[in-house]
Amino acid sequence: MNGADPAQGRAAQGWKLAWVYARRELRGGMRGFRVLIACLALGVAAIAAVGSVSTALTRGLSERGQEILGGDVDIRLIHRQATPEELAYLTEGNRVSVSAEMRAMARNGGGAPDEQRQSLVELKAVDGIYPLYGVMKLAPAQPLSSALEKRDGLFGVAVEPNLLDRLKLKVGDTLVIGDETFRIRAAIDHEPDRVAGGFELGPRAMISQTALSATGLVQPGSLVSWHYRIRLPESAQGDVALKSWIDGLRERFPDAGWRVQDRTDSSPGVRRFVERVALFLSLVGLTALLVGGVGVANAVKSYLDGKRSVIATFKCLGAPGSLIFRIYLLQVMALAMVGIVLGLAVGAVAPFIVDAVAGNMIPVPADLRVYPGPLALAAAYGVLTALAFAIWPLARARDVPATGLFRDIIAPMRRFPPRRYILAVVLALGVLAVLAVGLAEDRFFAMWFVIGAGFVFAILWLAARGIMKLAEKSPRVRRPELRLAIANLHRPGAPTPSIVLSLGLGLTLLVTVSLINGNLSGEITGNLPSRAPSFFFVDIQPDQTAALRDLVTAHEGVTGFQEVPMLRGRIAAVNGVPSDEVKVAPEAQWALRGDRGITYSATMPDNSTLVRGKWWAPDYQGPLQVSFAEDLAQGFGVGPGDKITVNVLGREMTATIANTRQIDWTSMGINFVLVFSPGLLSSAPHTDLATVTMDNSIVGEEGERRLEADVTRAFPNITSIRVKEALQAVNGLLDDFGLAVRATGMVTLASGVLVLAGAMAAGYRARVRDAVLLKVLGATRARVLGIFLREYAVLGLVTALIATLAGSLAAWIVVVRVMDLPWHFLPGTLALTVVLAALATMLMGLFGTWRTLSAPAAPVLRAD
């Protein structure tokens, strides 16, 4: 006896019969579904491309970790070199390459003093076995040791080409760094471990370890990073053996104060940046897909409108509603899969396209291949979107009786589908949200992005309904063209909701991104430089500070000079809990990732406001205390009375939190998250940090250059950082990021345009009927066209205004509440958005209605 469930058998037979009818109807082609396919293809392609490219970059960081890191393990020490005991442990059975990295000033070696040019450089002094992994490429080609050796009384230096451009030098010229003159022997074409250095302010200059000693740059307390890159023997190359070796190192030297990185995460900062950018762009792509979902709903509704007679006939012949639903669901999903497959094909080849077009601009090595994971996720997003937006119109056709379907041709009725279908739509959208948040690296950000997108979607839907209601209740206007245009906004089957939703979401995203980027760029290039000092001078020996002050203040235009002692330290424990076990808020985790600048002071720094606790007395000489930044203290969950342990020069010091401060970082002045009480740190080797403020209206750019040149000649070991150049570098990164976001945002807008085109196509038959009737009543083609253009102009303007308000609110929250920056209204950006939206809507309306003006009247009138 067969134990199969009869209900399951009938369901299977029902789906089989539905597929037979669906397949027959699909033979008629994809007419009416081109917009559906394009919308899904565009959204899926954006998500798949971002996922594939980011995976290629992160896999490249992982697979080529040895080359990027420069070894299997990189051990970094600040201020000091490894002790003989530590070095003996590191070299036991391993190959160890030692290098020193610091910032320094370089200047051209010839010419009169007033003709010399100088530039900040990222100086790297290497030993004879560098690099342990990868290949150092120079131009002209030669071994690195040959390029850096001392010949004819001068050490060699290899520099990046942009340094040659800055100083107007060429290979063979001389370059002065510190107290030593170098011969430029080569330009650097490729430095294998350059990516691991992270954000840098100047071009690379590479010298030998012996030459570094001759420069006189390394002084007690100088900000030098000593790297010990280790190549383990073949027997210890496995991940387990690598972890065991690192664990043994930490157990042997628990208080060394070094930072240990291994090849499995060779550049965590770059990896986090890639992942977070990919997260944001993926969410933008998901927004584009949701905008495309409106196009899916429009396409399905339009297609079903054309199938009313077929569906009504099916029902009159006794076909159950479930069969109708299955037939057209299978058709929609089959065609949706065409769009999804097209999008996946674009996403699969995206890493290869990006590498071919912009590979030289991306410093991160990409591992080029097809990645199934991102493609599967993009496909899941596409399927869920198609289901979420197709079920509603399909369910409506399923449960409407045949007489109702015929009546809908003349007077469409507003009705909700049965509860089970509404729940299915909610479930599909819920799974989309769970996937977007659950698989994100930063779930908090992803959650708020999804909530914000849903909120804007709801606002736009309500706005569309409000526009229709206002148009319906508006007073009668005398001009017939305008009166008909307003009537078209709320007539049955009006495209108002589709246009407002599709264009509004994309425009809101672009307005938000543009305003945030505009405010940040304006703050960095306009407001910050006006408040910020002109220079930071670092690596000042304490016995040089007075002479430097005299030299600087003697220059015309100098309005301020401030100096403080500076050391580097790493937070080792909080209330006795090791830093790697401390639970802190995500926004405060950066403070545990490496060394921090610290200082000591008898008085509270400028641009700080006391929040909790009390500042110590000016003559305080008791146990070590520390002032903590308030936002960091909240992230750590600590306050006055708690203990912070900091590792300075390999020695751990525990201080009691005396107070917390609110710091105004926008002043760009000297400030630290950790300010200690004088006493214990005063005796530690350290350097001074100074800021110099100049009045540009008096001296201009030339005065700044003269001051920098005089300081460099008088104090070769002191490094100057021009704040304006640093801000320009940061602004360049912001511009690049903003360009990527806007480019992805344009995908959202493109989806909106596709949806708009679909809405035009869906209403084509109604537009033809309207145009014919108006022409029969005596309207000229110009007047008919004017009616349609007025309708779309009103829709475009209203949609743009709503998007402007929503995008401005979102940008204000990010800039003021999240970034704590002043808000600047950018009318140009908003006006451009409004004008472009109105023009785009009018042009699409013109394109969609132009053919209706040429339709002959007789066939239309006979059909009616």
Low-confidence stretches: none
- Strand order, sheet with most strands: 2-3-9-6-8-7
Task: Give a quick account of the main beta sheet: strands, pairing sense, barrel closure.
Answer: 6 strands, mixed, barrel
As a percent range, the share of helical residues equals: 40-55%
CA-to-CA gap between the ends?
Answer: 59 Å
**Number of separate strands:** 22
Q: In DSSP terms, counting alpha (H) and pi (I) runs of 4 or more, how many helices? A: 25
Radius of gyration: 34 Å
| Beta-strand percent range | 15-25%
Find the structural class using helix and strand composition.
Answer: alpha+beta
Q: Mean pLDDT, nearest integer? A: 81
Structural account:
Helices cover 55% and strands 17% of the residues. With 864 residues, the protein is an alpha+beta fold. The protein has a six-stranded mixed beta barrel with strand order 2-3-9-6-8-7. Strands 13-15-20-17-19-18 form a six-stranded mixed beta barrel. β13 (558-574) and β14 (577-578) form a beta hairpin. α9 (268-306) packs parallel to α12 (372-399), α15 (443-473) crosses α16 and α17 crosses α23 (781-818). The chain is elongated.
Question: Topology of this structure?
Answer:
Blueprint: H1 6-26, H2 34-63, H3 65-69, E1 73-78, H4 84-91, E2 95-108, E3 118-126, E4 137-139, H5 144-148, E5 150-151, E6 154-159, H6 161-167, E7 174-177, E8 180-190, E9 204-208, H7 209-215, E10 225-231, H8 239-252, E11 259-262, H9 268-306, H10 308-316, H11 321-358, H12 372-399, H13 402-408, H14 419-438, H15 443-473, H16 480-490, H17 496-531, E12 535-540, H18 545-553, E13 558-574, E14 577-578, E15 596-600, E16 608-613, E17 625-629, H19 630-636, E18 643-648, E19 651-663, E20 674-676, E21 687-694, H20 696-714, E22 719-722, H21 723-762, H22 764-776, H23 781-818, H24 827-850, H25 857-863
Parallel strand pairs: 3-9, 6-8, 15-20, 17-19
Antiparallel strand pairs: 1-10, 1-11, 2-3, 2-7, 2-10, 4-8, 5-6, 6-9, 7-8, 12-21, 12-22, 13-14, 13-15, 13-18, 13-21, 16-19, 17-20, 18-19
Helix pairs in contact: 1-11, 2-9, 2-11, 2-12, 2-21, 9-12, 9-15, 9-17, 9-21, 10-13, 11-12, 12-14, 14-15, 15-16, 15-17, 15-23, 16-23, 17-21, 17-23, 17-24, 21-24, 23-24
